[in-house]
Amino acid sequence: MPSPTKKSVPAIDEVDTSYLETLIGYNARRAALTVISQFVEHMAVYGLNPVEFSVMSVVVHNPGVTSRQLCAALNILPPNLVGLVQLLENRRLIERKPHPHDGRAVGLHPTQIGEALMAKAEVTARELEIHTCSKLTPNQIQTLVTLLQKIYL
Amino acid sequence: MPSPTKKSVPAIDEVDTSYLETLIGYNARRAALTVISQFVEHMAVYGLNPVEFSVMSVVVHNPGVTSRQLCAALNILPPNLVGLVQLLENRRLIERKPHPHDGRAVGLHPTQIGEALMAKAEVTARELEIHTCSKLTPNQIQTLVTLLQKIYL
DNA sequence: TATTGTTATACTCTATAACTATA
DNA sequence: TATAGTTATAGAGTATAACAATA
Fold it and tell me: Is the CB of B136 under 7 A from strand D?
């Protein structure tokens, strides 16, 4: 008489993901998705998703930056930036001005509204770090940032 | 007479992304994209993208796992897993068998072909870690994994 | 000839609602 | 009534090719 636990096709009680959890790629992706979903949630009050936030941030810290420079800095493809810039311009967060010495290029500048919005948004982003990394000490957060940059920079 | 550098609308020589580089979310996303693009490149020989690799890995290490369990473990929505499972089944990498004591569920099992493929793919994935993290010591890789898990687990 | 910005478009990934079969 | 698997579909994100204007 077979014991009750003997089955030719057993069921899985708890899924073992220990192998995947040893891989950098798996952990980086899972962590990034967690951080980003919290970012989306808390930045909704400013009407900014992560990409819009980073574009605005680069424009505020680099007034006059061109689309090409933005694309290179943020790893965005030029066709995908066009609609983004138009959206931010329509919201009066940025302005497009002629480039000082390249007739092909256009400089992107923050408006007063854009600067005011980002001043608040960047404070929120900083507070969000603490919340997202609540299980990490400030020292560990700094270590994490340093190690991540060694991968992509 | 104005100096040549005096411009009302100056150009940006080099884009300053130092603010964004202090944010966990920005770094996690950029690092994840770098790691994943290398993974895609090196796993193409097996015909597996990152999601297919993780599904296959969980099935191999948890024979009989159900779709629901897979979804919960890998953070995939059930409708998006359906096509994935069909694809892997068509490639004879997994098999669907009746669940031992739940008529609604279906157990996913690796075939011999699937197990053989994943044995090789997991070796490649391990080698890829070393390549992707060439600027990190084994100790730093371990630290990075631990810190990332504190965020999403 | 090369580059900036742009349009059009396709492909992938992700998300939601609703259905069926079973518990 | 709740859950597993599925279908259909919508939306977001990402990709390539090609064009006009300027360098």
Answer: no
Say yes or no for a CB contact (<8 Å) between A145 and B98: no
With 0-12 CB in 10 A as exposed, 13-18 as middle and 19+ as buried, what is B3? Answer: exposed
What is the distance in angstroms between the Cα of B33 and the nearest Cα belonging to chain A? Answer: 8
C1' nearest to CA of B78: which nucleotide? D5
Lookup: nucleotide whose C1' is closest to B103 CA: C22
Quick: pLDDT tens for B49-58.
999 999 999 9
pTM of the entire structure? Answer: 0.92
DSSP string, A92-119: TSEEEEE-TT-TT-EEEEE-HHHHHHHH
Work out the pLDDT band at B10, boundaries 50, 70, 90: confident
Q: Is B50 on the interface with A (CB under 8 A)?
A: yes
- Decide which of 3.30.429.10, 3.90.1150.10, 1.10.10.10, 2.30.30.40 is the CATH code for A21-152: 1.10.10.10
**Cβ contact B136–A125 (<8 Å):** no
Best B6, B14, B15 member to test A by mutation, with max A CBs in 10 Å, is B15
Q: Does domain B40-152 have CATH number 1.10.10.10?
A: yes
> Would you say the C-beta of A101 is within 7 Å of strand C?
no
Q: Once rounded to an integer, what is the mean pLDDT over residues A64-92?
A: 98
pLDDT tier, A9 (very low <50, low <70, confident <90, very high otherwise): confident
**How far is Cα B106 from Cα B97, in angstroms, rounded to an integer?**
6
C-beta separation of B99 from A47 below 8 A: no
A30 vs A47: CA distance, rounded Å: 24
Residue A91 has pLDDT above 80, yes or no: yes
Name the nearest CA neighbour of A52 among A36, A29, A68.
Answer: A36
CB-nearest partner of A25 from B36, B97, B99: B36
Domain-by-domain residue ranges, chain B? 40-152
The residue type at A52: E
